[in-house]
Amino acid sequence: MGGSIQTSRFVLFLVTLVAAITVTFGDISTDSFWLLRIKQELVDPVQVLDNWSPRANICNWHGITCSDDRKQVVSLNLSSSELSGSISPDLSQLTSLQTLDLSLNFLTGLIPSDLGQLQNLRSLLLYSNSLSGKIPPEIGFLNKLQVLRLGNNLLHGEIPTSIGNLTALRVFRLAYCQFNGSIPVEIGNLKHLISLDLQQNLLGGYIPEAIHGCKELQNFAAANNNLEGDIPSSIGLLKSLQVLNMANNSLSGLIPIQLSHLFNLSYLNLLGNRLSGEIPPELNQLVQLEMLDLSKNNLSGTISLLSTQLKNLEALVLSDNALTGSIPINFCLDNSKLQQLILARNKLSGEFPLELLRCSSLQQLDLSDNTFSGELPPSLENLENLTDLVLNNNSFSGSLPPEMGNLSNLENLYLFDNMIRGRIPVEIGKLQRLSAIYLYDNQMSGSIPRELTNCTSLTAIDFFGNHFSGSIPETIGKLKNLVVLQLRQNDLSGLIPASLGYCRSLQSLALADNKLTGSLPPTFRLLSELSTITLYNNSFEGPLPASLFLLKNLKIINFSHNRFSGTIFPLTGSNSLSALDLTNNSFSGPIPSELAMSRNLSRLRLAYNHLTGNIPSEFGQLIELNFLDLSFNNFTGELEPELSKCKKLGHLLLNNNQLIGTLPPWLGSLQEMGELDLSSNNFHGTVPAELGDCSILLKLSLQDNNLSGEIPPEIGNLTSLNVLNLQRNNLSGQIPSTIQQCKKLYELRLAENFLTGSIPSELGKLTELQVILDLSTNLFSGEIPSSLGSLLKLERLNLSNNKLQGEVPPSLGKLTSLHGLNLSNNHLQGQLPSTFSVFTLNSFLGNAKLCGPPLLSCSELEGHQERKLSNTEVVGIIVAIVFTSTVICLVMLYIMLRIWINWRRVSISTSDIGSEQKREEEKWVYGEGKTKNGEYWRVKSMALAPSQDEQIPSSCIFHLKLDNEAKDNTLV
Q: Which residue windows are transmembrane per the record (predicted)?
């Protein structure tokens, strides 16, 4: 390293020595000595300085211009020479230099202050390099300087006030740097200044009133800075001004009327400021004006500018203001030169302004985002030069006039978000230059005309959100340049035309939310540029074509809510996938591990299918994965530890599968997790305490598993949690008091577990609880905490099937949002809050001592309880009744038997009984109910024995009824 430095110094010494010798002999000027020194500090990759040699005359060196007597260097021009390195201070030795041009190179470092010694310098051009630092104040010594261009560098700091000393300056350009501070007042000293370009810096403060001192100024550009305050009226004194560009600052106040005195002004740009008030009608006096842009301000009032007076006006941009009213009636004349009229995003109203139809020179017409209404006139065809018709986001109605087909130069037709009805006229097919047609969010109907496919220049079609019906035209394949086809949310039916595959430039295809059927055509393999395809909410069916694997540029796929079946492998050919949604189909088989090759995959949704197998361990490579939904499938196995590498996972939905094993602690390492749903699986073991590390978790659903153990107290760390569902597990222990820290909970479900202890009063601090608090079917004991009365937003409360005791706290009566309540099957007692009368009896059953509406009043319950016998007494009475009934039954049986024996004796002794008496006896026995006289038979004595089926003593029946009544009595 040291040797090379020594060599360089030796070479420099030789060069200097040779130059000194040659100077002595008088062959070249002394300037060659300094130029050779300057050369040593420049890197010259294309060797433009190769002929800078003592052997050649200096006046023949590249970039050098000598004086007429060839004794002095008056110009050094090395512009666009790909030079790098720094600017040498030795340039100050070229005292005769009048022009120094080092622009459009790669120079770095500072601007040497020594340049202030070049007293003869007239042009200093250092723009478009990578120079840094500040402008040296010594530049102010160059009193002959006429052109100073330092723009497009990395220069910063304030503009030195010494600039005001450059009274001969005509061009001063500092654009595209990082200058700050304000525009110096001394700028007004530059009386001969023609061009002042300060745009794209960080300048702030006010525009100095002294600017009027630049009386010859023609071009003043200070756009894209931080200038503030009013536009000084003194600008109106710059009679020579042709260009005034103050766009994208923070200027405020009114547009000064004095601007109307700038009769030579051809370009006025004030967009992107905070100007207010009305547009001065005096601006109509700027008869030389060609371009006027007042957009993105706070201007109000009506449009007062007329192209009839501004005869040279070609572009008028007034968008993004608060202008009202309609376009003036006499806005245009036949000789208007207006080509661009942009009035978007105002508050203009009325029907389509027919006045504009006289502006036959119009090429771009933008009336979007206003409140125009009515129908589009057929006379639109008068705008024969129109290339862009932008009428979106208004209230235009009616149908599209067929005459629009005569706008032969039309390239872009934006009519979306209106109330246009009817069909697309077939005449649209005549627009051979049409590139984009946006009709979305209207009320159009009918079929998509086949003639539209004659517009072979089309690159974008967007008909989203209409009522188009019928099929997609079979000739769609004629649109070879089509990039975007958006037909979502219509009533289209039928198959996807096979010719669509011939639109080989297609990048975005959206056919979702229609009634399309059939399978995907094999020609889809030809759509090699396709990056987005959405087919959801249709009736597509069958397996996917294997050739879809050839589509290597796919990024977004959504085939959800269809009837596709078979394997999803054909969709894994692209390694660029960022979103894949196949929800609600009939796909089967395992998840292909090839999906993990798409390293940018952020959303994967495969829910509601018939997929099987394990979750691929290769998913651990998807470090961008944010949304993983594999719910409602038949996945088995345990959670692969490789998933812990997916640190950006925000949604992990694996519910309703057949997953097994324990919940891994690494779930807590997923710090971006917002939703975790592992419910309805076969997980066992405990709830890992590490889940408390998921600090931004919003929803935790672990219900319907076999989890056991206690709820970890770390659950309280989930301070953002909205939903906690642990119901239908085998959890035990108490609810941790730390749950009070989950202050954003609006749904808490812990039902059907084995939780014990009392309900923690801390639950009353969860004041955002709204959907439900469900602690039912557990083993909770103790009293209901009165703090639950603070849950004023709660809509459902279920504490049923526990062992709760004591009274229902009166504070619960404050829960006016409650529309679902269940306190049944506990040991509660006492008066219910009066507001609970709106709930049904089922809400309170199984609490024997509760009273008050809708139950018995407390006085009725008290009286009933006074009459109520003790359990011992009830048992004694039942035993006595049973004994007495048995004795009575035996006595009755004995009496009946005695009667029957006596009757048999009588029957035997009187065998010649009369036939009439027998007939009456048979009628009774076989149930004949009436005599010949129509009277019912009556039993007048106990002489007749009942049939065998009728021998149930009345005392036995009484016994059963009494027993039932006794049982019912115990439920009161």
A: 874-897
Please give the average per-residue pLDDT across 180-208, as a whole number: 97
Average pLDDT of 111-122? 96
The set of residues, in sequence order, having a beta carbon less than 8 Å from that of 319 and lying 6+ positions away, is 295, 296, 342, 343, 344, 345, 346, 366
Residue 492: beta bridge partners? 470
pLDDT band at 71 (very low <50, low <70, confident <90, very high): confident
Point out which residues pair with 652 in neighbouring strands: 628, 676
Cα 430 to Cα 664: distance, rounded to the nearest angstrom: 65
Q: Which amino acid is at 242?
A: Q
**In terms of Cα–Cα distance, which of 911, 906, 937 is closest to 923?**
937
pLDDT at position 657, please? 98
Q: Give the DSSP letter of residue 268.
A: E
pLDDT recorded at residue 335? 74
% of the chain at pLDDT higher than 70:
86
Distance CA 246, CA 220 (A): 8
Pairing of strands 147-149, 123-125: parallel
Give the pLDDT confidence of 588-638 residue by residue, as tens digits: 999 999 999 999 999 999 999 999 999 999 999 999 999 999 999 999 999
DSSP character at residue 182: B
**By C-alpha distance, which of 86, 62, 88, 90 is closest to 76?**
62
Question: CA–CA separation, 99 vs 930, rounded Å?
Answer: 144
Dist. CA 548–CA 503, nearest whole Å: 16
C-alpha distance from residue 531 to each of 63, 535, 777 (Å): 52, 13, 52
Token digits of residue 424:
């697309």
- DSSP secondary structure of 611-664: EEEPPPGGGGG-TT--EEE--SSEE-SPPPGGGGG-TT--EEE--SS---SBPP
Show contacts of 134-140: CB within 8 Å, 24+ apart: 134/158, 134/160, 135/111, 135/159, 135/160, 135/163, 136/110, 136/111, 136/112, 136/160, 137/113, 137/161, 137/162, 138/113, 138/114, 138/162, 139/111, 139/115, 139/163, 139/166, 140/116, 140/164, 140/165, 140/166
Residue 774 in contact with residue 750, Cβ under 8 Å? yes
Q: What is the dihedral of CA 72, 75, 81, 84, to 10 degrees?
A: 80
The C-alpha atoms of residue 773 and residue 760 are separated, in whole angstroms, by 13
Q: State pLDDT tens for residues 448-475.
A: 999 999 999 999 999 999 999 999 999 9
Per-residue model confidence (pLDDT) at position 860: 72
Predicted structure pTM score: 0.78
